[in-house]
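Handoff note, outgoing to incoming analyst
You'll be picking up this chain. Sequence as last confirmed:
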Amino acid sequence: MKHSVYDYSYEMRQLRNKRISFFLTLVVSIILFLTLFLNLVLFPVWVRSESMDPDIPKNSAVFVAPLLRTPKRGDVVYLSRLDDEKLSVPKSVINRISEFFTFQQFYPFGYTQRITGKPSLRRVVGLPGDTIYMKDYVLYVKPADQSLFLTEFEMAESSYNVHIYSVPVEWDNMGAAGNMSEYTLGEEEYFVLADNRTESSDSRLWGCISPHRIKGKAVLEYFPFNKIRIF
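Most recent structure output, in case you need it:
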């Protein structure tokens, strides 16, 4: 029977146990730090679709601040999945850590190709109390304390670009609508739109978004590196 030095030396066993304890403590500390950081400070979002073209193109990446959940007009927000599927705390933590290290390329639990089963980035264009309507894919907004409609671009606190192109006549009543009748948002209703207006889903299909679905505000586009910018 073979024996190791740890079988004979108390000091060596003590040293080995200290190393194991240090390693386990380090791993737990890293997991706790990442969990707190991702839930309270910043987490990365990899853009998998063309819905926010042209300002946030497909295969770009942004940082989202989860504490910033009360958006201003024109902000890009991160919305939770719309099918209300809930993950357990351990699965959510594993997903967050996996997303962080793989830049949103892999997360083992809860991913689905369904539109309502995926979190998404969308732009807030209508705030609670606004009266809105859409014409030719541009939203017109009248806040509760004003008497005139202005375009979403005139109302937004920061500038942005949208992707709009003319669709064939035979596409009428297909896809995302380019025109919408007047509607007044309730006290806890936000109207969100994709920047790629012609091809994407948003509040025109989902309806208005309640505050609890807003999981943070996009604050920085950090990839591709030649297009780094603060929102």
